[in-house]
Amino acid sequence: MRRAHTVEAVRAAEAELMARLPEGALMQRAAAGLAVAGARMLGRVYGARVVLLVGGGDNGGDALYAGARLARRGAAVRAVAAGARIHPGGLAALRAAGGRTLAPGEAAAAEIAAADLIVDGLVGIGGRGGLREPHAGLAALANAAPGPVLAVDLPSGIDADTGEVAGAAITADATVCFGTGKPGLFVDPGAGHAGAVHLVDIGLGPELPAPRLECLQGADVAALLPHPARESDKYRRGVLGIAAGSDAYPGAAVLAVGGALRTGVGMVRYAGPSGVCSRVLDRWPEAVVSASDPGLRVAAWAVGPGRGTGEQSREELEEVLETDLPVLVDADAITLLAEDPRALQERSAPTLLTPHAGELARLLPGTDRGTVEERRLEHVERAAEEYGCTVLLKGSTTVVAQPGRPAAANLTGTPLLAAAGSGDVLSGMAGALLASGLRPREAALAAAHLHGLAARLARGGAPVSAGDLVEAVPRAVAEVSALADGSAPPADRAGRYRR
Ligand SMILES: NC(=O)C1=CN([C@@H]2O[C@H](COP(=O)(O)OP(=O)(O)OC[C@H]3O[C@@H](n4cnc5c(N)ncnc54)[C@H](OP(=O)(O)O)[C@@H]3O)[C@@H](O)[C@H]2O)[C@@H](O)CC1
Ligand SMILES: [K+]
């Protein structure tokens, strides 16, 4: 599990810890970890050209001390000072190790363009709003340079708490964060700037409160997945009812049923128009089909993909929500709920909504798709609070919120998932896990993890269709299940899952 804390929580923990340690000890721990990561990116340190972008705060101090360590190992280190005053101790250490400083300008631009490694120490958790000059210009030079960029604590220009990016920002190949993750490293648009995220333990752990954000890794998901016991039968493994698809969109039914069957469930009962029933049976003879009937004996329902927003769909949704079964509400059914949420308000059984940004905006009047995408965490949490249920917000970073629990972000997301029908597959997958007995938050997170992994595995990184995705789900389940012995995933695992 990767955890992330707010700036406020990090500051408080830092103060507690610093009170017990000699002055500067934390910065030395941070700089040591940073130098190790920089050396790893360089491969050969001796003779390498390293440029540090140094702002006026402690983030710049980390970069300077790390630069001094690299300089002592034979790297040619240049620090570009953004502003008149930079960390005095770090500056002295760099100079003592043979490093030099430069003001922003043509010579600095040439150094950045020729660097084997650029270290971004412009701003860290002390950054506020969009980058000012000369920071913004230096960030643009670093982004355009051929050398790799290593961000200190977080890429400068991204909001540590939310992942918002207001204007210019560093796009890093890797980020070394100290003590704990920051939410902005795992939630887009910030996550897209962070590259592979490495954590350096500086001893903050015992001082930290509950995380602001959690990110499940493969082993965490493996621990959640149901394992059929010897005495299992199809009813004990769980029966999922699927009310998806319509004569206009039969494919949504076929994909949702496929997603459920490939994830693993005792039985899928598909309910829908007879024409769609035959399409489902043609593709999935193991499904049991019938005309729409929310009275079917099932353990959970998945409702909405491709179903339409007509009167019949509305009545069906209401009937399903009246049951005391877990229900996943997606796509057209979310649009219906946004128009009239009463059936949800009266419900106490577990409910999982799986909107994309546009659908979430419909659930939260006064906002729009773009705003939701800019501030995903805030909006998914608002929806979870207002509707009193678990909400999975699909998109570039899939995030999950449940009242009373830390928000969670999925690490396996990939732009490959932006394909028609991919959400229908996810509905089936999360529905299957709900029917198997997982709670909505866990079902949502495990399904999102497997969904992203399946997209990556399906065609070796080449574009995938929703049908490819369905067929790759068993490989994703197998890969994750192989981690079920509780051992931590390989160190670079999270890195591999990042873009
Ligand atoms: N916490 C921990 O446990 C540990 C923390 N450590 C490190 O400390 C870092 C935090 O350091 P910090 O508090 O000095 O703040 P920091 O990120 O350097 O930024 C402040 C500077 O940026 C400037 N500035 C702000 N916004 C700006 C903008 N938009 N555009 C341009 N400039 C802007 C601001 O200028 P001002 O606005 O004040 O004029 C000021 O000069 C943290 O991320 C980690 O790396 C480790 O060493 C050890 C353990
Ligand atoms: K930084």
UniProtKB/TrEMBL annotation:
It catalyses: (6S)-NADPHX + ADP = AMP + phosphate + NADPH + H(+); (6R)-NADHX = (6S)-NADHX; (6R)-NADPHX = (6S)-NADPHX; (6S)-NADHX + ADP = AMP + phosphate + NADH + H(+). GO terms for biological process: metabolite repair; nicotinamide nucleotide metabolic process. InterPro entries: CARKD, Nnr, Ribokinase-like, YjeF_N_dom, YjeF_N_dom_sf. The keyword Transferase applies. Keywords: ATP-binding, Isomerase, Kinase, Lyase, Metal-binding, Multifunctional enzyme, NAD, NADP, Nucleotide-binding, Potassium, Transferase. Residues 217-480 form the YjeF C-terminal domain. Its cofactor is K(+); Mg(2+). (6S)-NADPHX binds at residues 58-62, 124-130, 153, 252, 306, 356, 424. In the N-terminal section; belongs to the NnrE/AIBP family. Homotetramer. This is Bifunctional NAD(P)H-hydrate repair enzyme. It comes from Nocardiopsis composta.
